[in-house]
Amino acid sequence: MVGPTGIGKTRLAIDLAKYFSTEIVSCDSRQFFREMKIGTASPSAEELAEAPHHFIGNLSVEDYYSIGQYEEDALKKLNELFKDRDIVILVGGSMMYEKAVIEGLNDLPEANEENQKKLQAIFDNEGIEKLQKLLKELDPEYFAVVDFHNHRRLLRAIDVIWQTDRKYSEQIAVSQDSRDFRTIRIGIEAHREELYGRINRRVDLMMENGLLEEARSLEKFKHLTALNTVGYAELFNYFAGEWDLDFAVSEIKKNSRRYAKRQLTWYRKADDIHYLPLGYAQEDFDGLVNYIEEQINSNH
């Protein structure tokens, strides 16, 4: 179950899980952290009670957790769940985490210490813009989808490119055939203006629900990777006196829309996603269920 942030994946996933009497595995890398409920739009207690969820609030922001660890944990959980059921719902907008589960990540080289030092020096002396420019030149495809405000992601990709002399996007795009399940990909689509309107409203709702207090309680962890993310980084600038609150909130909206745009770019390349319209009616849902059942019963 894929799609950009704010499109309504949580609700559709729960409705499908209830229909098929199954469970939900999250691949939203921001919702792993229990202290970040509001800013990551984690499912509410009521939603969690409607269908069993896995990998929601299972970690602390202080825990180190890599995409490789997630791949291993998610596959282990899927194997458990598939013992008793034919269908499991995987949901989330973290493209690389979804890819890790469905296809597997390639064996990329370990970080090269010399490269890391060189890149860290560039970051310290010339800022994140220099790293962004470097990655954009080396691998425009990956730059189009990466969270380019996260300097660690930039460092990692550039390091791998330097080591292998190959684009990072090519190295993570090779499919692995080690999966003994079939994948049916579904999504929700909307006009961009409609999606952006939803994102803006959702940020306002987060603020009403206490995002400011949540971010303040996490300010002491702002150096951690988990907090280097939309919704928190902007408020840390407000706490530091660099921005006023209205501007910080407008930046959260802008950066959320940018993230959604990168997600749309990523998903647009896929030709195997069956889409429902935003605000779908009951007959759309029934049609989706029929589509899923047909896919399961087909020999393809």
From TrEMBL:
Gene3D superfamilies: 1.10.20.140, P-loop containing nucleotide triphosphate hydrolases. The record marks S94 as: Interaction with substrate tRNA. Its EC number is 2.5.1.75. Substrate binds at T5, G6, I7, G8, K9, T10. Keywords: ATP-binding, Magnesium, Nucleotide-binding, Transferase, tRNA processing. Transmembrane segments: none annotated. It comes from the Bacteria. It is an enzyme of class 2 (transferase). It holds the Pfam family IPPT. GO terms for biological process: tRNA modification. GO terms for molecular function: ATP binding; tRNA dimethylallyltransferase activity. Its cofactor is Mg(2+). The keyword tRNA processing applies. Residues 28-31 are annotated as: Interaction with substrate tRNA. It catalyses: adenosine(37) in tRNA + dimethylallyl diphosphate = N(6)-dimethylallyladenosine(37) in tRNA + diphosphate. Monomer. Belongs to the IPP transferase family. This is tRNA dimethylallyltransferase.
